[in-house]
């Protein structure tokens, strides 16, 4: 009687949430310190202290009617101007405030963009491993998602497979670099090759294929690695951003969509974005945190903690014999499971209270996601258990 | 190329926004104090001072990771418990925390509910005058909206017209009392009659017709008027609430959906609500303001200001000869235009810099909406102009 589709979706329980809930139960039995929960991508580094200072400052500076009132739908103009300016400074861009549309986080950014772009029969393509919510979002907004199998040796893009998947119905390609779940950052070469392919295919099919760059992890990147600013490489890029990870504000739901004026059909696209935000009920991005984001847009939480965790875990596991592409950013490691069936491997890991997520959820079987946004101590204590687990497999 | 539907929607400009923007321009020419902008429903009363105090308290009490982190999708459990308790105390209900689903404001509540309920071909019915965004939201979530013409003498419900509009495809009825745009509160008699009709029709068609009660103005109600708590009168009611108006927090986007366990298919409905919130990208309601809402859920802004404005405007206009149903709540007056064509009437009013919204936007031609969430002084100064306008019509 209620929506069959929505009830059916609920029965496909989130694997990540199930593991997390198992961990919560398990903690009651063996104690919190003995459960190594690597399931959730919830930032463990606190927001920079400036965030709370800004909140208080803003409350003191503005009247309540002003700070808690509606903003115009794309967001407070001075907020958008500040963010445009910051992007211009950092990435040598030329954004104006009207190119920035403030949103209720990355999930909102993506939904709004999919709704803004999608006509009947439109398809989107993403690259495994990929964030599984893309499937829900694209479908909810009337499109179809196709997935390019992972290049498991590099987690860059298998261009041949991608090329074969592009059809006259392809409206956009979704990329996510630094990547959840594998932490890999696309190289400049990868992006240039991707841009060339999309230009060729756009020409072939006589319509633009948009590149949707989902980049909540853009600022979480480690020594020696550069995250290219994608619009420099492919002009028809729509940037979907969130402050959830960089400022450790995932609960506050604040982000933006950025579109340069060079993007094909800029005017219609911006109109469609505004309409999409409207019909989906995203009246305006939360008003206080719009202002907080503007004031803190050049900051991040203490990334060095994640880098330390990455090094400890990557070095530890590879030394034990695990196979893993070294992540350049985000806070995930995505090693191969020690048997073909990652689900079965994760079950074995559970015996040691190591809670990992099978790569199957991310369109990449045979691997496991380890979220290392945890206390460094958790990793130190988990390493001997990873070693015992490896020994079970004779490694 | 981008979504045709979304671009087309953008071309249908919001009448309210156009009037507001005209007013902003006009202020530059004749001065802010000489423009009587009654177009927007933006609360003019500040949030209770406790709101900002709570924000600061919460930031000081909790760690940043806790307060700005993800909450579970339905919202922080203790927040939901507090809100359930408050509803139980105030309306003699028996909500538990699992019956409350925190949302990013009323627009989100409604979109989530429509998506959760709608199967192909489903229809929803609302009663004119009605909030025009219902049309966008229902359509965006796959349903069709039908509108019962207004009973312009009372703005209660024309039951016969409603009965004729209910079909085997009717999934739900949307009501909004106190009403935007007319400020009328449905009487107990109206609601009982509505409930009886829906019970009869549910039985006739052998499926439940849900009542979606959109009640952001529930607490904005004046002396001598009672807003019934709808689930007492019709058990299959889904309450969609927002703190935008009661706490004057429209920019912060915080509200909830409340469903009693007596509602038909409760389990599936709650699952579908969670799925709908997920696919629409509403990861969780803004985390800090979830906690603020819980701490302030028994408060409101200073309603007496709106009541004073209502009295001044209603008494003033009716004395001049305007015809108007007396509003019992919200902050809107919806008098008849002094000629058949409300659009033309609003154009005439513009000569006096009185900015009113034609009722056509709300499915009720021949009327105008006056939003009196403005300074009392604005109303005092506008009254002589309303009198001049009436004189033009020989009244």
Key traits:
homodimer; 395 residues; alpha/beta; Aspartate Aminotransferase, domain 1; Aspartate Aminotransferase, domain 2; 2 domains; seven-stranded mixed beta sheet; three-stranded antiparallel beta sheet; 14 helices; 12 strands; globular
Give a description of the structure.
The structure is a homodimer of 395-residue chains. The first copy, chain A, has 395 residues and is α/β, with parallel strands linked by helices. Helices cover 43% and strands 12% of the residues of chain A. Chain A is built from 14 helices and 12 strands. Chain A has a 7-stranded mixed beta sheet, with helices on both faces. In chain A, strands 9-12-11 form a 3-stranded antiparallel beta sheet. In chain A, helix 9 links the parallel strand 5 and strand 6 (210-214). The first copy, chain A, is globular. The first copy, chain A, starts with a helix and ends with a helix. The model of chain A has no long low-confidence stretch (mean pLDDT 96). The interface between A and B is large, with 77 and 77 residues.
Shape of chain A: globular
Name the CATH class of the largest domain in chain A.
Answer: Alpha Beta
Spatial strand order of the main sheet of chain A: 2-8-7-6-5-3-4
Give the rounded overall mean pLDDT of chain A.
96
Q: Give me the CATH superfamily of the largest domain in chain A.
A: Type I PLP-dependent aspartate aminotransferase-like (Major domain)
What class, by secondary structure content of chain A?
alpha/beta
Q: Largest contact between protein chains?
A: A-B, 77 and 77 residues
Overall tally of structural domains of chain A: 2
Oligomeric form of this entry? homodimer
Give the low-pLDDT segments of chain A: none
The rounded distance between the terminal residues' Cα atoms of chain A is 53 Å
Which architecture of the largest domain in chain A per CATH? 3-Layer(aba) Sandwich
Sheet-strand content of chain A, in percent, reads: 5-15%
Instruction: State the major sheet of chain A.
Output: 7 strands, mixed
Query: Counting H and I runs of at least 4 residues, what is the number of helices of chain A?
Result: 14
Roughly what percent helix of chain A? 40-55%
């Amino acid at each position: 009687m209620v929506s069959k589709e929505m009830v059916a979706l609920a029965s496909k329980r989130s694997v990540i949430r199930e593991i997390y809930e198992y961990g919560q139960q398990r903690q009651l039995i063996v104690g919190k310190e003995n459960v190594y929960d690597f399931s959730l991508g919830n930032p463990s580094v606190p927001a920079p202290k400036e965030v709370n200072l800004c909140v208080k400052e803003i409350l003191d500076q503005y009247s309540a009617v002003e700070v808690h009132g509606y903003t115009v739908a794309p967001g407070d103009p001075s907020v958008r101007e500040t963010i445009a300016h910051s992007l211009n400074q950092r990435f040598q861009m030329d954004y104006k405030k009207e190119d920035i549309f403030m949103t209720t986080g990355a999930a909102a950014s993506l939904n709004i963009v999919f709704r803004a772009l999608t006509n009947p029969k439109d398809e989107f393509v993403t690259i495994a491993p990929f964030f599984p919510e893309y499937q829900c979002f694209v479908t909810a907004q009337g499109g179809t998602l196709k997935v390019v199998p992972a290049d498991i040796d590099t987690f860059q893009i298998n261009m041949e497979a991608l090329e074969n998947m592009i059809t006259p119905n392809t409206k956009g390609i979704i990329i996510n670099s630094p990547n959840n779940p594998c932490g890999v950052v696309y190289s400049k070469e990868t992006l240039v090759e991707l841009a060339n392919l999309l230009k060729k295919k756009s020409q072939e099919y006589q319509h633009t294929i948009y590149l949707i760059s989902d980049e909540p992890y853009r600022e979480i990147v480690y020594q020696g690695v550069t995250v290219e600013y994608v619009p420099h490489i492919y002009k028809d890029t729509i940037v979907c951003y969130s402050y959830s990870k960089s400022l450790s504000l995932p609960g506050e739901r604040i982000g933006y969509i950025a579109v340069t004026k060079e993007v094909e059909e800029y005017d219609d696209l911006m109109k469609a974005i505004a309409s999409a935000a409207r019909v989906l009920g995203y009246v305006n991005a939360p008003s206080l945190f719009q202002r907080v984001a503007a004031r803190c847009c050049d900051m991040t939480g203490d990334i060095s903690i994640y880098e330390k965790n990455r090094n400890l875990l990557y070095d530890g596991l590879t030394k034990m014999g695990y196979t893993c592409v070294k992540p350049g950013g985000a806070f995930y490691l995505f090693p191969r499971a020690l048997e073909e069936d990652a689900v079965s491997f994760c079950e074995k890991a559970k015996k040691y209270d190591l809670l990992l997520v099978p790569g199957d959820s991310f369109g990449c079987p045979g691997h496991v996601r380890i979220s290392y946004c945890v206390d460094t101590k958790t990793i130190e204590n988990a390493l001997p258990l990873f070693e015992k687990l490896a020994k079970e497999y004779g490694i």
